[in-house]
Design a protein that fits this description.
By secondary structure, the chain is α/β, with parallel strands linked by helices. It is 36% helix and 28% strand. Strands 1-2-6-5-4-7-8-15-14 form a 9-stranded mixed β-sheet, sandwiched between helices. A 4-stranded mixed β-sheet has the order 3-13-10-9. Its EC number is 2.1.1.44.
């Protein structure tokens, strides 16, 4: 379904309720139990994540923003004029505004996000701030293959900031690269943020902030299941747990049950033992060479990459060969 409002178009690919229910039940019946990280981002979850990005302990956002500010004009030369910019997981659209300062003649901006309400609100705000910008917002699951709206442009460039690529298992990251490659053509670009391996103390602090916002973000998925799936999770009986798994090179987020309990989700009953965890998110950290090798398997060549002085974070411009 497509709707038009001034210079903004909306296409809803429908992250359907049945998918949420099916994937939740599938994950909670596994051993160990899991929930897909994409379901952390309902409207409230997206708001909480925006709060996380402003926390002192959470370095990725401010570091990536600083890199973008430093290289935005260089990026404009790499992308070139009359391009379509496609952003996966657009969120509040804060980072795209840095690129818009340099991409003066962008043909169309295509934000794609699973949180429909958050996407619509941020697109309307962006349209108000940039009245001459043509925006075609797409609500849907960007991890699944989708058909883009028709884009009348000289070149396409995908944008995937925030190191969200780290949320994917390596084989899932490879599949996502394949999905993006299918949306692009030879010579099109892919600008992507990637978190780097670093001191474990920095990582643990970033996912266990003193204010408990990350904990609230993680536990919000229980509220969502209660609200949308008629589940009966006891919200006081779980706590947030995040740690760095050095063997796998990733941060892990879990929800830990504080007692033996049974949860009903619609007609299904799930037993959860005291101390049992529900694994909600991974965040893989990369070395630059390893990341370039991963991207190359889907036909991408690394044209250039940038890091901050402390090498906490990296930004990569890839090209489909």
């Amino acid at each position: 379904m497509t709707t038009v409002r001034h210079a903004i178009q909306f296409t809803d690919h429908g992250a359907v309720q049945s998918s949420f229910l099916t994937e939740v039940l599938k994950g909670l019946k596994r051993e160990p139990k899991t929930l897909p990280a994409k379901f952390l981002y309902d409207e409230r979850g997206s708001e909480l994540f925006e709060e996380i990005t402003n926390l002192t302990e959470y370095y990725p956002t401010r570091t990536e923003i600083a890199i973008l500010e430093r290289v935005k004009h260089e990026l404009a030369l790499l992308i070139g004029p009359e391009a379509a910019l496609i952003e996966f997981g657009s969120g509040s659209s804060r980072k795209i505004q840095i690129l818009l300062q340099a991409l003066k003649d962008l043909t169309v901006y295509v934000p794609i996000d699973i949180s429909k309400e958050f996407l619509y609100a941020s697109s309307l705000k962006l349209g108000h701030d940039y009245p001459s910008l043509h925006i075609h917002a797409v609500a849907g699951d960007y991890t699944a293959p989708m058909t883009l709206p028709e884009l009348n442009c000289r070149k396409k460039a995908a944008f995937f900031p925030g190191s969200t690529i780290g949320n994917f298992e390596p084989h899932e990251a490879g599949a996502f690269f394949d999905t993006v490659a299918a949306m692009l053509e030879k010579g099109d670009g892919f600008l992507i943020g990637v978190d780097l391996k670093k001191d474990i103390r920095i990582l643990n602090a970033a996912y266990n902030d003193a204010r408990g916002i990350t904990a609230e973000f993680n536990l919000n998925i229980l509220k969502r299941m209660n609200r949308e799936l008629s589940a009966d999770f006891d919200l006081e009986a779980y706590r947030h747990h995040a740690f760095y798994n050095e063997a796998k090179g990733r941060m892990e987020m879990h929800i830990i049950s504080q007692k033996d309990q049974k949860v009903t989700i619609q007609s299904e009953e799930i037993a959860i033992q005291k101390g049992e965890t529900i694994h909600t998110e991974n965040s893989y950290k990369y070395e630059v060479e390893d990341f370039h090798n991963l991207a190359s398997k889907s036909g991408f060549t690394a044209q250039k990459f940038w890091t901050d002085e402390k090498r906490l974070f990296s930004l990569h411009y890839l090209e489909l060969r």
